[in-house]
Design a protein that fits this description.
Elements (H helix, E strand, L loop, with lengths): L17 H11 L6 H4 L3 H17 L4 H14 L3 H13 L4 H9 L11 H11 L7 H35 L15
């Protein structure tokens, strides 16, 4: 149960705003979290769904790194729903179980592979005070990814931070049977 009513039926949306509802259903096949809450402001719900949809479905950013980044955002934002939805996807995409556990447990990055550590570090530096990526981390990923991919990576981080804010504000819990993120 979330903190505000979930709007899942098309008929409860004002008629001139139903196209926003329809666009979310077209991209996701259903109205789920947090869109059922964000539909109190249909235009915002649709724009959020579009941005997250780009990050998750349209972007051709490598899936392993994308899921690694989303899990790191979920951990840094203590977003239980986002973690539940993506930690298994990260494992399926090839992120090591040790890396998923290190992110979940906020362990040192020393044991992470050279392929995974820079992405986790980038997100952590950006989301932890002072919210700036250090020059060495930035340079490493820029050299590895190039400017376009680095911009895309940063956009994925931002879209999932925004999603986590909505999920956390409305206190949307992880679905039953999904991986639990310890918060606190």
């Amino acid at each position: 149960m979330s903190r505000i009513p979930e709007l899942t039926e098309r008929e409860v949306i004002h008629e001139d705003q139903r196209h926003h509802y329809d666009s979310i259903v077209a991209s996701r096949k259903r109205i789920g979290a947090p869109y059922a809450n964000l539909l109190h402001c249909p235009d915002l719900a649709a724009r959020t769904a579009h941005l997250v949809g780009y990050s998750l479905f349209t972007s051709d950013f490598p899936l392993k790194e994308k899921e690694l980044v989303i899990c790191t955002v979920a951990r840094e934002m203590d977003c239980v729903y986002e973690w539940a939805a993506h930690s298994g996807d990260a494992l399926n995409a090839g992120v090591s179980a040790e890396t998923v556990a290190a992110i979940r447990d906020r362990s040192a990055l020393d044991g992470l592979s050279e392929d995974e550590a820079p992405f986790v570090k980038y997100v952590q530096e950006l989301l932890r005070p002072p919210h700036r990526v250090t020059e060495p981390t930035f340079r490493m990923l820029r050299n590895r990814l190039g400017d376009q991919r680095l911009a895309e990576l940063t956009g994925i981080v931002g879209s999932y931070v925004g999603l986590a804010c909505s999920l956390n504000a409305f206190e949307i819990k992880a679905p039953e049977g999904m991986p639990v993120l310890p918060v606190g």
